[in-house]
């Protein structure tokens, strides 16, 4: 069992990262290198979070062995017994042999640092580049990252000069490595506290508000009004860009050297715009003899970049609008079903996606009503209280983890109590819950924040390559200082506990922070206390109020602008609901007509064919009887007229289009 826990967690974390990436990314349309790089970054960061509790339990057992070896002891089977106190040191079920964890942490850490500081920034510029060749994209990416890399070299040079001037230090490779790690962790800790302060308050509050149906419905109306504005802006922007593409396509003919670039741009346009613009392949012009002004390759690359961005934004707003409509219809259904006497959940619209039969069997309308209308609000309230308790413990421990005598950090108290009895399962569970909660607070903020339209993680496969790579960069920069902060909260870091004990394998990879004492004894200890100020600011929504004053509409219950947007969103949802109801009514009428008269139409057609055959044979045998033929011909015409009336279907003037009926094209009537 020594390596089984490590192997299982490695496999589980991989599928977890793959699932999340599949939810936000698009494996079919996005470049494979973008998918692989983002998956690797997310996987390594999640792996650190899940493996660190095993490192803690293994370190506690190793400390016990060192204590046994330094005192008289006797061996007894699978454990070691101290002679004076007769205390047992059991080996944990998830024990990892010596030498594995240092190599594992070294590979994981330096791979993540290579991704976040070198590879992912380069791939970001490469993904956003509008170049038409690999060489052109690489050149653009190098130029854009010159300032980026130069800034890092300047910061590292400042640390290097400080160490070189200080006579207390002798420059060695290990010390240079520690300086680089300290610089990266300082940058990450600065951002970590900002995100943590927001998540510690917003996550419990969002779950508490999740129990308020009226609050969620009003917020959904507010989002609908804002999203409709963004959707209209995206459509207008796409129209403008497509007009520029049309002009370029008409000016640059097929014999122009830059026509390949234009064709590449046209392939990125939506299908309806491609059919509308055409390719102008029949119009030949000798461009060398004409004095027309043609766009340069640089301007075409800029246009290519704009096309990629506008198409992605337009597609994302369309998908988000449909998702928001489903959410609004669902919340309205919940509000209607709360007063239902039958206690069965009734949906206004049927789900467009086929439901699982197993879920349909167990999740009946009655079960759905009890869960959605009765149990779910209380579940969210209880969960919010539990999360708020965790947040209070984290804030208290962040402000007191530097105190070792007495130990004030609650997480350190829990771990030390379990360490006395060597309850490794409790130690691992306590460590996992602690670091998992910290990670949720930080990572969920990364998923929620939006930097205008440049960085935005949208679910349902609507996140662009730039945002995916940027999220990978943030994860790789935030995870190492997050783990160091966790080890400090639990006093497993010797720099915080001031004990001469064996450090964890993760801490040994980071090196001794005593090389930079003002960071180890100052910034790392006192800067996390700012989380209290950030939590207070988040609780009173100071950031939301500032954004609202700057003109960025935010959901605030006491704002007149918020009320106007709620009313606007309610009207938009009502309009879309009426439209969908008319569509479903039209489809139901056509379906009922088909089910009612479909068999009659088939029998009428068979009788008509049989009658035609008899009449044709009768007319051939009686060709010399014109009067009889004339009479039967008139009868046949009358029957055909009756059959056509029977085959005719009523027109649905409430539907959007008459041609929406797929039966018309199949029957050929």
The percent range for helix content is over 70%
Low-confidence stretches: 73-86, 618-638, 640-669
Question: What is the strand content?
Answer: under 5%
Helix and strand string, N-terminal first? HHEEEHHHHHHHHHHHEEHHHHHHHHH
Radius of gyration from CA coordinates: 35 Å
Helix count equals 22
| Sequence of strands across the biggest β-sheet | 1-2-3
Shape assignment:
globular
Subcellular location: Membrane
GO biological process, one term: adrenergic receptor signaling pathway
Transmembrane segments: 6-21, 33-52, 103-126, 146-165, 177-201, 378-396, 425-446, 466-489, 523-542
Region (Disordered): 576-669
List the helices and strands and how they pair.
Layout (H helix, E strand, L loop, with lengths): L3 H21 L7 H38 L3 E4 L2 E4 L5 E3 L9 H29 L5 H32 L7 H37 L3 H39 L7 H10 L2 H7 L19 H41 L19 H6 L2 H36 L9 H12 L2 H25 L1 E2 L3 E2 L8 H25 L4 H4 L7 H6 L6 H10 L4 H9 L2 H8 L10 H62 L4 H22 L14 H6 L2
Antiparallel strand pairs: 1-2, 2-3, 4-5
Helix pairs in contact: 1-2, 2-3, 2-13, 2-14, 3-4, 3-14, 4-5, 5-11, 5-13, 5-14, 5-18, 6-9, 6-20, 7-9, 12-13, 13-14, 20-21
GO cellular component, one term: membrane
Keywords: Coiled coil, Membrane, Transmembrane, Transmembrane helix
Pfam families: LMBR1 (PF04791)
């Amino acid at each position: 069992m020594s390596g089984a826990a490590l192997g299982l967690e490695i496999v589980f974390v991989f599928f977890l990262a793959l699932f999340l990436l599949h939810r936000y990314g698009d494996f079919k349309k996005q470049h494979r290198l973008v998918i692989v790089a983002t998956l690797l970054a997310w996987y390594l960061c999640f792996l650190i979070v899940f493996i660190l509790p095993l490192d803690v339990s293994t370190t506690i057992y190793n400390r016990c062995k060192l204590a046994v070896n330094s005192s008289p002891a006797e061996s007894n089977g699978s454990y070691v017994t101290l002679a004076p106190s007769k205390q047992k040191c059991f080996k944990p079920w998830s024990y990892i042999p010596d030498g594995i964890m240092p190599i594992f942490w070294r590979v994981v850490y330096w791979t993540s640092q290579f991704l976040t500081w070198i590879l992912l920034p380069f791939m970001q510029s490469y993904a956003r580049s509008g170049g038409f060749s690999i060489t052109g994209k690489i050149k653009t990416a190098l130029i854009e990252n010159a300032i980026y890399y130069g800034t890092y070299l300047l910061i590292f040079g400042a640390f290097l000069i400080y160490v070189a001037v200080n006579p207390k230090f002798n420059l060695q490779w290990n010390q240079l490595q520690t300086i680089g790690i300290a610089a990266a962790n300082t940058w990450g800790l600065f951002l970590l506290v900002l995100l943590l302060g927001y998540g510690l308050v917003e996550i419990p509050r969002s779950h508490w508000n999740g129990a308020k149906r009226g609050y969620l419905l009003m917020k959904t109306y507010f989002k609908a009004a804002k999203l409709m504005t963004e959707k209209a802006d995206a459509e207008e922007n796409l129209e403008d860009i497509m007009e520029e593409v049309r002009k370029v396509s008409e000016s640059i003919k097929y014999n122009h050297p830059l026509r390949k670039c234009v064709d590449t741009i046209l392939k990125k346009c939506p299908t309806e715009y491609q059919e509308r613009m055409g390719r102008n392949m029949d119009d030949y012009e000798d461009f060398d003899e004409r004095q027309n002004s043609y766009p340069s390759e640089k301007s075409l690359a800029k246009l290519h970049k704009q096309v990629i961005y506008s198409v992605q934004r337009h597609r994302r707003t369309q998908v988000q609008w449909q998702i928001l409509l489903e959410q609004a219809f669902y919340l309205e259904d919940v509000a209607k079903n709360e007063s239902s006497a039958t206690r069965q959940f009734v949906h206004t619209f049927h789900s467009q996606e086929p439901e699982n039969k197993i879920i349909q069997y167990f999740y009946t309308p009655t079960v759905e009503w009890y869960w959605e209308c009765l149990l779910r609000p209380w579940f969210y309230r209880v969960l919010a209280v539990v999360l708020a308790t965790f947040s209070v413990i984290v804030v208290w421990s962040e402000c007191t983890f530097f105190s070792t005598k007495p130990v004030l950090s609650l997480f350190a108290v829990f771990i030390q109590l379990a360490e006395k009895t060597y309850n490794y399962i409790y130690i691992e569970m306590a460590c996992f819950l602690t670091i998992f909660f910290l990670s949720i607070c930080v990572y969920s903020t990364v998923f929620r924040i939006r930097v205008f339209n440049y960085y935005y993680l949208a679910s349902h496969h609507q996140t662009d390559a730039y945002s995916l790579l940027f999220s990978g960069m943030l994860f790789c920069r935030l995870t190492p200082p997050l783990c160091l902060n966790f080890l400090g909260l639990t006093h497993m870091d010797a720099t915080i506990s001031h004990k001469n004990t064996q450090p964890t394998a993760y801490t040994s990879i980071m090196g001794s922070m005593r090389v930079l004492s003002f960071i180890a004894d100052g910034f790392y200890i006192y800067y996390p206390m700012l989380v209290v100020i950030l939590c207070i600011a988040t609780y009173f929504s100071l950031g939301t109020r500032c954004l609202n004053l700057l003109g960025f509409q935010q959901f605030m219950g006491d704002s007149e602008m918020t009320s106007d947007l709620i009313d606007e969103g309610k009207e938009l949802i009502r309009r879309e609901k009426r439209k969908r109801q008319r569509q479903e009514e039209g489809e139901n009428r056509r379906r009922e007509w088909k089910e009612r008269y479909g068999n009659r139409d088939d029998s009428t057609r068979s009788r008509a064919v049989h009658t035609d055959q008899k009449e044709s044979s009768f007319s051939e045998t009686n060709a010399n009887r014109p009067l009889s033929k004339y009479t039967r011909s008139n009868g046949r015409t009358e029957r055909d007229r009756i059959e056509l009336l029977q085959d005719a279907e009523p027109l649905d003037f409430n539907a959007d289009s008459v041609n929406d009926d797929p039966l018309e094209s199949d029957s050929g009537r």
